[in-house]
Amino acid sequence: MKKKIRVRDIIILQLVIILYTGSSIMAKFAAAQELFSLPFLLFYGGEIMILGIYAICWQQIIKRFELSIAYANRAMVLVWSLLWAVVIFHDRVTVRNLAGIALVIAGTVIVNTAGEEAEQ
Known about the structure:
By secondary structure, the chain is an all-alpha fold.
């Protein structure tokens, strides 16, 4: 049985998820470059490096959390990706995007709090 989830652990989990979204940012930057040019290779290499670091961090995360909770929180990738799309790439946000994000956040909160209620 895993220990009780603390806010600090959730923050660490979210930081690892944010790290993972960095690979998508690098991929988008790489896609804008000429194939096999130096900038393309640098962005692509950065993407691979971020994924490697993420893999190591994810192994540490699943030691702290039940797997179902860790994977439910991984859905927050959508929230962080939408934020980066707006901030970095100046994409537009639609009402459907916001509705989807609200569902993801609600589901993540339910999964995180359901484990605590079951233990009580």
